[in-house]
Every structure is written in C-alpha cells, then in structure tokens.
Amino acid sequence: MATPTHLHRLLLLLLLFLASVLLLRCATSPLPNAGVTTLDHRPGVYPVVLLPGNPCSQLEARLTGEYRPPPESPQCGAGSNERGRWFRLWRNATAMDDPGVAPCLADQLRLVYDPAARDFRDVPGVQTRVLGRFGSTTSFLADTEANKLVEALQQAGYRDGETLFGAPYDFRQAPAAPGQPCRAFSRFTRRFRALVERASRVNGGRPVVVVSHSQGGYLALEFLKRSPLPWRRRYVRRYVMASTGAGGFLSVMSQLASTPGVALSAASAFTALPSPVVFGPGTPPLVVTRDRNYTASDMSEFLAAIGVPPLGVTLYETRALPVQLGFRAPVVPTTCINGVGVPTTKQLVYWDGNFSETPQVVYGDGDGLLPLASIVALDTVIGGDTRQEYYKSIKLAGTSHAGVVSDAAALKRIVDEIFWSTPV
What domains, with CATH codes, occur in the chain? Predict the structure, then answer.
C-alpha cells in the first residue's frame, strides 16, 4: 500500500492549485465588516456570478459494479453498501487522514484518458458530480467553512439566487484546445451561459459582473474568449479576475517531478504550467541542472526528463499548450487584482539532475504562488490588446494568493470594483 505521504502528494497533484492546504483553502473564520459599501438605497444592482478557486468546489461520487479497486487496496469499495450511494469524494478531510481510506479516495478521485473518445473521464465504475445546485454560492461550502468572498458580498447586500450566483465546477477538468473533444468544458460552458442569462433576466435585463479567483479565472477567461462578442457585450458588464496570472507558476513543475505518473490523472494537470508566452526564450531558466536548463519553451523536454509518460507529453502539446498560447484579452471591461510582495518560487535547481529529490528553490516576488512575471504579464497580454477597451490592474502589496479573497482590506477592494459597475 502506498504511504500516506505519497498519497497526500498524489492528491496535491490532482488538485494542482492547492499548492498547500493553508494557501488556497476556503476561509474558516467570520469576516468582519471592514467598511464595505452596501447596496442600501441603490436603484439597481448588476448581478454577480462567481467562479471560485478549486478547493471551494466539492465533489460527490458513487460506485457501480464496474468499479475495480487497485490491487494494493482491495478494501476500496468492497462493501456492498458503498455501491450505488453517493458519498463525499472531495473535500473529505477525514478520509485523507485515514491510511485505510486515503488510497481509495486517491484512486476514485483520478481521471483517465480515453484514447477512443480523445477525452478524460472518470475511472470505470466511478460516477462523480459537483456537489450543490449550479447557480448557488452555497455549493462553495467546504464542510462548515464558508468562502469569505461570498460572505463579503452578502454583507454588502447581495443575496444568493437573487443578485449573487455561483458556478461550481469539477477542478480536475480543464478546457482543451479548440477542436479537441472536452465534454466537461462544453457542458460547463452551456450551463454557465444559461446562468449568466438567467442572472441578467431576473435583474431587469442588467448585464452581470463575472468574478473569479485562481483556477476559476482560467475557466472564466476561456469561456469569455469563446463566446460571441455581441453576447459578451450584451450580458457581461465587467470581469473582475483575482489571483490569476498570464503565465502560470512553478510549483506545478516540482510536484510533477516528484510524481510524474500522476500527469495522466487529471485533465487540469498541465493548466498552470509556466507559459512560453511569459517564460520563453530570453527569460531566466525556470529549472537549472548541471547538464541543461529549461525555460517554458522546453516544457516538453522537461516533462519527458522527469518521467511523464509519452502520452502525457502529447496531451500537454495538443490540449494544454494551445490554450496557454491563446491566453488573451476577454474584450470586456476587466480588472485584474493580484497580491505581490510575498516570497514566491521563481527557479528550481536540480543540480545533480535527480528530479525525484526536493529541489533547491530560488525565490522572487509574487503572491506566494504566482511569480511576479506571471502577474505583470497581464498588463501586456490583456491591457496591451488593442481590442480591450478598458483594463485596470490592482496589485496589493504584502498580500498572498489566498489573501486576495480572504484579507479584509483586499476584499474591500474587490467589492469596491464590483460596485464601480453599479449605478448610484
């Protein structure tokens, strides 16, 4: 049986943006009212549709007779009472801490790539669904932990299902390059478009303010880019993107290096890898070894060198990389809010070329997860696009990746940006 340490590493890789439980977890404490503006006496409100960071999206699963537990963990799903009933798959802190149950969670949480369908799907015999009602922010609850951004908006006067809406998603999935099959993103796109239109309709036809955090930003931006421009101009008043960079981050590289076989266990495994648009030729290397260095333009070679299976390298090149290269302006009024001034990985050193060992880390500026280069690149990739009529960048000194949506002062800035779109 795999050790608990290995299993926890596996789960971290499947979650990707969960660089550490403390960094990206949903908030656990009540939010004080830090002078946030409220909706009182306003004649109209632009509704908010929120896409959270991935830990706030919960998954349920049930097993069918087709499920076969891994040979080293025959206890997984062995009881007949475990088949056919829905149970909490993620977030399940109790199971993660149980050495007898954690292997089951890891096996049932992973995805597999189906070459015939050219797409990712659940493990045979495992059916999953996103917990909660699509359109409600109550589905972002992680056990008893409530998302602080939701709390801040509710304290400002927004009401779930009336002026505040949520779009939960399966964080294991990710948009594929245009033309590549991606049932999960296609389904999410249909539901999200219908939600935006419904939020507008129940609020007198007013366009919505789309708000995202972390991985939710990749989904929101890809959705906006692929939506017809007339639709965007009709239904999206503004986009507020928090803690999402244009170039990805490095911790994904070190996590993949430690357990390369997990690259095929989630469609989102390569989503946050550093982009050659930001970290390509002419930039300092991201990985240093005695024999050679790697920039983001050498990512395929790096993945092969750390032991990612050839199919994984191909999926990176054909599904994930084109999406990275296509990161561009949403062409709706946009505000990007990011933390800076926090030590952040900017280079990994594997001097002896042993990628299974813990690398020496060179730190630079950033939000603790996103390096400054990834954050600053937004000013060029989005702000420098001639089609982008309005762009604003807010950089919060001394604020972490999670702090952007949990620190009181940072939350006030987000709510103020949302209110900027609301008539007085």
Answer: 51-419 (3.40.50.1820)
